[in-house]
Amino acid sequence: MLVLYLEALAAIALSLSVLMAGAWLVQQRTGNSGWVDTIWTFSLGIVGSGSALWPVAGSAPDARQWLVAALVAIWSLRLGLHIAMRTAGISDDPRYAAFAKEWGVDSPRKMFIFLQNQGFGSIPLVFAIFVAARFPQPLLRPQDCLGALILLAGIAGEALADAQLQRFRSHAANQGRVCDAGLWRWSRHPNYFFQWFGWLAYPVIAISPSYPLFYPWGWATLLAPLFMYWILVHVTGIPPLEAQMLRSRGERYRDYQSRTSMFFPLPPHKDMVT
């Protein structure tokens, strides 16, 4: 069993490294770093679905493996297509553009290292998918259904937040304003919140009070939501995005920050003035 999981880790790491090297090539050729997030999302979908369906001892994938693989694929397709459509309409992603400006002439090398680190840091996410798909009980349980509902709720919430933001931006009267409609009144980053929320599905599927000794690997799935929270809230998600919003929206965004929860949806302090 240990050998199987070590082999899976190695295969996951190699696959993500190769795919993120491909993302670097696309970014260098096109000059549009927005394709990085598109490729990263599809990469997690491909490697995650593949790891979920990885046969064990030549046996065919069971119902749980197919369920987990389907959930990963749905998540990846929805988010990846959304990012791809957004990227096709811009010349560059302002977050990565800021990094490139800071790095100067050394930008290509540092971007490659940055994307390899992003791939390496994504290993806990895919490994959580692999572990959840291999819970040692062939029949689906209510827990599996609950995990599926959590992930589908995360996908739906993120899609709703994206649609609300797109609708807000589509009105010319909102040019230069800050979106505070719908979910965006309760959180400055509701799309990131629901992105994180969906990753709670894998611990729900993999950890069971009835099997604490028989499947200790299940606890490793907790790394997925922990890592996703850290990366979204402290690294490549909120910090560079909020810095960009402050540059482009100024005091309006500072007002929004003072009234609206950063991550977890909470009632606004008071009506926002923009």
Entry keywords:
single chain; 274 residues; mainly alpha
Give the SSE string: HHHHHHHHHHHH
Amount of beta strand: under 5%
Q: Describe the main β-sheet briefly.
A: none
The total count of helices amounts to: 12
Derived structural class: mainly alpha
Q: What coarse outline follows from CA principal-axis ratios?
A: globular
C-alpha end-to-end distance: 57 Å
> Which radius of gyration do the C-alpha atoms yield?
20 Å
* Number of domains as seen in the coordinates: 1
Helix content: 55-70%
How many β strands by DSSP?
0
Which stretches of 5+ consecutive residues score pLDDT under 50?
A: none
Mean pLDDT across residues: 91
Entry summary:
With 274 residues, this protein is mostly helical. The protein is built from twelve helices and no strands.
What would your notes on this structure say?
The structure is a single chain. The chain is mostly helical and 274 residues long. The protein has one domain. Helices cover 68% and strands 0% of the residues. It is built from 12 helices and no strands. Helix 1 runs antiparallel to helix 2. The termini are far apart. The mean pLDDT is 91.
